[in-house]
Amino acid sequence: MTERNRYGEHLxxxxxxxxxxxxFEEQHYSIGHWARRWGFSExxxxxxxxxxxxxxxxxxxxxxxxxxxxxxxxxxSASAAARVYGxxxxxxxxx
Length: 95
What we know:
By secondary structure, the protein is an alpha+beta fold. The chain has 3 helices and 3 strands. It has a single domain (26-93), classed as Arc Repressor Mutant, subunit A.
């Protein structure tokens, strides 16, 4: 049985693995997705990402909605989620 890369292409024993995708190439998921996956509330996960900026975190401000309040949609890639999750669940933080 031959192995396949993330694109479904066959790998030979001489094939060099492709580097990790750039954050703009990764699929981004909602806060709700990560909350369900990790077993935390959306409020908790949203707080984790409130002050996080950098590769893999997209913010879309939704303003000017007549009489409704403004809000910001946050979309997070898997690499950014792993980085923040690792930071928030580090052993020294767990009591």
